């Protein structure tokens, strides 16, 4: 369950086995209908909330895969991250991986769960040493290319978030932002907080 995201059909079969046991136990006769006295979601609720605390298999499965995806995103120096990066996103990051590339069952599961991770993850910016284009560092970051103002051919685009700051300051360079991004995204970036700290940028 921590390596493969099970299908809903397979989860339903496993849940049926558990549900039938709790509601009927071991039956010598199988010709009578099962009587369901409580909704299954209530049975899976914690005991403190009146349930039996039985695990929700789908939630467990998703949670374990999500934990693996978080570990890959949060610890880029770990062996697992380096192996996956070399094979699946050598020129980008886990946030902008190529979903159409051939993949293992484990990586396919990670890709399926990534939308949840993306929706609830962001970097607290302090040093600004993260990529502008392949890291979730501001609101609506995934659509940043849609608001980019194309510059002349010989223009060198900034690479890291700190490149959008006033030189030697932890403040946004408003003039540069107005040049690079259309108003909606430009306003979002200007309102993105910068933490005055010597710590590294922190994934939350």
- N→C terminal distance: 24 Å
Provide the spatial order of strands within the biggest beta sheet.
1-2
Structural class: mainly alpha
List low-confidence stretches.
none
Please tally the helical runs, counting DSSP H or I stretches of 4 or more residues.
Answer: 7
Average of pLDDT = 90
Number of separate strands:
2
What count of domains describes the coordinates? Answer: 2
What overall form do the CA principal axes indicate?
elongated
The helix/strand order is: HHHHHEHHE
What Rg is obtained from the alpha carbons, in whole angstroms?
Answer: 24 Å
Strand content: under 5%
- Give the helix proportion (percent range): 25-40%
Descriptive overview:
- With 204 residues, the protein is mainly α.
- It has two domains: 1-121, no CATH class; 123-203, no CATH class.
- It contains seven helices and two strands.
- It has a two-stranded antiparallel ribbon with strand order 1-2.
- The two termini are 24 Å apart.
- The mean pLDDT is 90.
In short:
The protein is mainly alpha-helical.
